[in-house]
TrEMBL record:
Residues annotated as domain MARVEL: 26-153
Recorded topology in the membrane: Multi-pass membrane protein
Keywords: Membrane, Transmembrane, Transmembrane helix
Name this polypeptide is given: MARVEL domain-containing protein
Main location: membrane
Compartments reported by the entry: Membrane
Organism (species): Amphiprion ocellaris (Clown anemonefish)
Native organism taxonomy: Eukaryota, Metazoa, Chordata, Craniata, Vertebrata
Keyword Transmembrane helix: yes
Region called Disordered, residue ranges: 161-189
Amino acid sequence: MAMDEVYSATTAPNPKSSCFVVPTDHLDKTRFILKVFQVLLSCVAFSLEEAINSCYSCTPLYFFEFVSCTAFLFTLLLVILLSTTLHKKVTITCWPTVDFCYTGGIALLLFISSIVFASSNGGSSLETSAVVFGFLAMLAFIADFALFWKNLGLPFRNGGKAPSNPGGAVQVEAPAEKEKLTTEANGAD
């Protein structure tokens, strides 16, 4: 029996070594997929809006442009942060509150900007398509917001921290035992 046979049967790859580690404490697989759809739909809405050459009333177009671009870029950033270990390097400790408020706020802004742009545009197929994708992105944000609320409740109730994992391992450290070990290591009795 070779050494490779002994170690290959019991050694497992480290699951934390991959780039994306979903599910995390802040993002489960379903919400990760929803957030990817949010990024894609808001990117398409923004791209379609950018392809419009002339506008009937430019202020609603610019507002829609700002909201769809913000939704695309900031949601992409949020997905990258929450689905990797990068969120640990940022000094934000209330990720659930940030995620909850951001998702609800962007859903509201997409709703308002899509309605305003739909009511005041030239009626071209590009404008109509941009509005449709704006509403679809808004629906993805609403679904994510509702799923967050259903599964985790309001993040404000537990101080914005991630909910505790009742099935996870509990680490309890006995202070008296730690003190005893420290004094013995230093040579004091």
